[in-house]
Design goal:
Layout: E1 5-11, H1 17-33, E2 38-40, H2 52-58, H3 66-78, E3 81-89, E4 96-103, E5 109-114, E6 120-122, E7 128-130, E8 145-147, E9 150-154, H4 163-171, E10 176-178, H5 185-203, E11 206-209, E12 211-215, E13 221-223, E14 227-229, E15 235-238, E16 246-251, H6 254-263
Parallel strand pairs: 1-2, 1-12, 2-3, 9-10, 10-11
Antiparallel strand pairs: 1-16, 3-4, 4-5, 6-7, 8-9, 11-14, 12-13, 14-15
Helix pairs in contact: 1-3
Keywords: Hydrolase
InterPro entries: C-N_Hydrolase, C-N_Hydrolase_sf, Nit1/2_C-N_Hydrolase
Organism: Lichtheimia ornata
Length: 279
């Protein structure tokens, strides 16, 4: 039996929601035409705003989001599972959620994860980004979702730097970890690939990381390099170096994953008598 095909995407979102929706729906259709069973779209696929007031004005509830409705319709039309990052209204008037949705091939939302770790940095010769000024922190680990590729554990961007969350997802049965992202160029060049490969190796899972790319506005540029990494740490697919909407694809072989876990059972070797067991 052949392994199901995963598609990872990158594109350059702007503050124009309809434009971003059109790009994502086209990517879903392209992935379907190549036989993929699931597509992974970036963090903040609905929009990237130029300011906090603009972001607050553009954000709606998930139920009222025209962007989400468009992606759901495309998922159903193309019979495609979709992972996508969006903004979501919270109870606060000054903060919103950074949210990761998984949508099934009938267009139904089957998982909603809200980003737990917020990106507050002031990098010398780089950007100053304080996500906590406009984003409400999530407070729950979401169990992996059964998909045609395997069990997918949802995270978002900066969560990648915290191995504990990935280990918790593996403990809960994840075959695949996914990190829809919008890395800065400076942090991306230094850390993106090493972190993705490290998470794959230490948890013995596939890692699928969609990415924003290019110049979103005067203040914001993203690194791109969306990729799929196997449980051995090998990069199976990487999006081309372009700001155009792009896909890369690779098969997800769970027989290979299970073989690695049997041959090198690292989760069984963890010394939970010496340090806390991550659940």
């Amino acid at each position: 039996m052949s392994s199901p095909l995963a598609a990872v995407a990158q594109f350059c979102a702007t503050a124009t929601i309809n434009r971003n929706k059109h790009a994502c729906c086209q990517l879903i259709a392209r992935a379907a035409s190549h036989g993929a069973k699931m597509i992974f779209l970036p963090e903040a696929s609905d929009f990237i705003a130029g300011s906090t007031p603009e972001a607050l004005s553009l954000t709606t509830s998930i139920e009222d989001s025209e962007f989400v409705q468009g992606v759901q319709q495309s998922a159903k039309k193309e019979r495609m599972w979709v992972s996508v990052g969006v903004h979501e209204k919270s109870l606060s008037s000054t903060r919103i959620f950074n949210t990761h949705l998984i949508i099934d091939d009938q267009g139904s939302i089957v998982s909603t994860y809200r980003k737990m770790h917020l990106f507050n940095v002031d990098i010398k010769d780089g950007p100053r980004l304080l996500e906590s000024e406009s984003t409400q922190q999530g407070d729950a680990i979401v169990d992996p979702v059964t998909t045609p590729l395997g069990r997918v554990g949802p995270q978002i961007c900066y969560d990648l730097r915290f191995a504990e969350l990935s280990i918790a997802q593996r403990r809960r049965g994840a075959d695949i970890l996914t990190f829809p992202s919008a890395f800065t160029v400076k942090t991306g060049m230094a850390h993106w690939e090493p972190l993705l490969r490290a998470r794959a190796i230490e948890t013995q899972t596939y890692v699928i990381a969609a990415a924003q790319v290019g110049q979103h506005n005067e203040k914001r540029i993203s690194y791109g390099n969306a990729m799929i990494v196997d449980p051995w740490g090998t990069i199976l697919a990487r999006c081309a170096d372009t700001t155009l909407p792009t896909l890369a694809m690779a098969p997800i072989d769970l027989d290979y994953l299970n073989k690695l876990r049997i041959e090198m059972p690292v989760m069984d070797h963890r010394r939970t008598d010496m340090y806390p067991c991550i659940q």
